[in-house]
Amino acid sequence: MTAIMNGIGVILLLLAAVNAVSAFTSSSCYSIISRKQNTKYYQHQSHRRLQSTYADYSDTTPTQLIDIDEEAPRDIPSMEQWAEYQGAQRTDGYTITSTDGWDYYAITSTDLPTGAPVITVPEHMILSSNKAMEELRSPEMSEAEKIITSVNAESEFRQYYLMLKLLVEYEKGPNSPWYAWLNSLPRYYTNAASMTPFCCLCLPSLMRKLTVQERGFQQRLGVSSIKLVPFLNDDTKYDVDLCTWVYQIVYTRSFESGDGDLRIVPLADMFNHGAYPEIESSYDEEGNYYAYTTYDVPAGSPLRISYGDPTNPSFLFARYGFLDESTEATFCKIIPEHITKDMEELGYSQNRMLFYKNGGISDEVWDILLLQHVSSTKIGDKRALMEAHRTGDYATKQMLHEKYYGETSAMLLDHIETFLETLDKLSTKAGDRHRDLGDHPRLPLILQHNEFVKQTFLAVRMQNFGY
Which of 46, 62, 93, 420 would be 108's cystine partner, CB 3.0–4.6 Å? Predict the structure, then answer.
């Protein structure tokens, strides 16, 4: 009798463990397993669903193209219905929410344990640069590609063909399988590509450089090349706002997979950025997308992935249009006129030359300041510095830092004071035009960015110089 009771207890414990670990419903788990076991059936279902139109899962069928006006509302509920119809699955806790009716993002409404599945997105829903190029690239595209090649933008072909794929689907209107998803996307952006020339003048040097770079990408992939695409309507080709919109979608919602493909994954594109992301993404051999939690996530928490280096908030602002104030550090803004091989060997890069919000300074900053000083006056000590760095001779390196601390600290303070003065002038310029928000609506975010950088520099000055 005791053995039987013990056996029943073990079974109950196992059932409880299964229920605790599984974040999907039992039917969802069965669906995932059965599809992966029956690839032919899954491919057939995927093909059938891709032939669907908006009317197949919605009670209303619009008759016009998507409104891309910046103030057009985002239809999130229809997108969620579409995703379910297409076979996407999500944990009961996955919720798309908004605090202002414009910016929508994913959170969990239930506690999720480490490793819990959050969403799965079937391959046929995913927009891919590889698939776009296979579908749309042909000899007739040579003239359009020549424009891109002529401005040395061949590296952007993946993004370019994803943009063309979006334009093709846009032209189909409600007959596009991706209509509901397209209609759920933002029209208003605050990144570099959306800024006015005056906005650029209110940014510090690095941010301005990144902004010019991002705007350059947009211009190279814009109407000048799209007008030569043979399969698009003229109304589409010459619509600057439309071309800009699809550019924004591709550059803010596509991420590179392990094989170099750029992919936009509906539902997963609702994950915001986090320095300590809750979500890890993966693909199976058939190209289906899976998202799992990286640690225990309590109810009410955002579900985030990493968009890039968290120590480079300027890039995140330029590319995606948000200010990541959770980052612990930012680039120190020391930008030599010429970056030498010795500087690179000592660690000169934007993700290593850091000022921390608590006032700390990365070792690389001090190393570069020391190198700059001894390069012009103390060639022997320069050789000693580089040799000590290469051999890991910490004692010699520390001795050189102590020997020239007076000079390098003066260089650092001068850099901080000069940058703060420049930053104040830029913010004053932006503030003077703050009333013209209709013409320059991104100015408040630019002022917020400048203030964030300023507070970090002030913390470094206080920590190291006492004021």
Answer: 93
